[in-house]
Amino acid sequence: MRVAIAGFGVAGAARLSAYRRVVGADVVAVIDPSPERRAHAAALDGRIRQAASLEQALDGGPIDLVDICAPPVFHAPLAVQAMEAGCHVLCEKPVGLDVEESLRMVACARRTGRMLYPVFNYVYSPMMRTLAKAATWLREPVNARFEIRRTTHAAGTPGWRPDWRRDPAVAGGGILLDHGTHCVYMATRLLGGVPYRVTCTTRDGAGGLDETVSARLDFARGTCVIELSWAGTERRNLYRLDGANGSIAIDDDRVLIETPSGTETAALTSPTASGTHEEWFPDLFADLLTHLERPGGEPDPLEEILSTARVVEAAYASAVRAGEPVEPV
């Protein structure tokens, strides 16, 4: 499969490295408006053609998949252009800035028959695999708690707005739209379906975007409390599931499982070990290929894009109303 990486910042450069682990994927082009970033790509791999725009890349030779690693404001224009040109699309989160934009992107995928696949890469993390396995034996109700602490936002490349995550015109939202997207699709997978109610409060930081978030998602199976911060004193990830049969807690690289028969501890690779998570990518790409070869598999990537966008948008709506409950629609 011939791949073009659109956006060669931190994520794009990491993706080029990740593709080296994927059999059958060949990065043939890198797209970035910055001459500096294109030069950096050329220095990493001189065989890859460089392009300042998607049009230029498409004119240069066949492309099967456009992997969008650009900041969120560019996702929809690039994705629609790529699908209209006959390319499949792999898109970083958040796929759309909001529900309306996500609906337009999904409609384009359905109309053109092209794949629009989200980089919901935490699905393939060691911690999510561990949590998913535990969710099968915990028994309802299952109550989840996710705490994501960062000392600040993730920085971009020095050559192009390193603090773009603080710019509403580029990021579209703060930590809720950024890391909160990961938490939402993880919660919907672990608790089985879309929450019927969302409550949320936020506090803004530099740039006027949300930097701390407290949210609660109510599901038929249980609840998920999500605490996010770009203003913490440390970088840390804590995940916990409690059910009728016991509990599991993951504190970065430590796992504690408690059941009526006793306590078990284990170790795993913490997601804080890397900001780009290249090691999770081959399994994600394999799932993309599975959906291409056998359309209609579960979960449907398009439906998961929409359900995630609806929950995030409901959380923002609740925050605007000082934490009043909102139903995702």
TrEMBL record:
<dbReference type="Pfam" id="PF22725">
    <property type="entry name" value="GFO_IDH_MocA_C3"/>
</dbReference>
<feature type="domain" description="GFO/IDH/MocA-like oxidoreductase">
    <location>
        <begin position="153"/>
        <end position="248"/>
    </location>
</feature>
<dbReference type="InterPro" id="IPR000683">
    <property type="entry name" value="Gfo/Idh/MocA-like_OxRdtase_N"/>
</dbReference>
<feature type="domain" description="Gfo/Idh/MocA-like oxidoreductase N-terminal">
    <location>
        <begin position="1"/>
        <end position="117"/>
    </location>
</feature>
<dbReference type="Pfam" id="PF01408">
    <property type="entry name" value="GFO_IDH_MocA"/>
</dbReference>
<dbReference type="InterPro" id="IPR050463">
    <property type="entry name" value="Gfo/Idh/MocA_oxidrdct_glycsds"/>
</dbReference>
<dbReference type="InterPro" id="IPR055170">
    <property type="entry name" value="GFO_IDH_MocA-like_dom"/>
</dbReference>
<protein>
    <submittedName>
        <fullName>Gfo/Idh/MocA family oxidoreductase</fullName>
    </submittedName>
</protein>
<keyword id="KW-0560">Oxidoreductase</keyword>
<dbReference type="InterPro" id="IPR036291">
    <property type="entry name" value="NAD(P)-bd_dom_sf"/>
</dbReference>
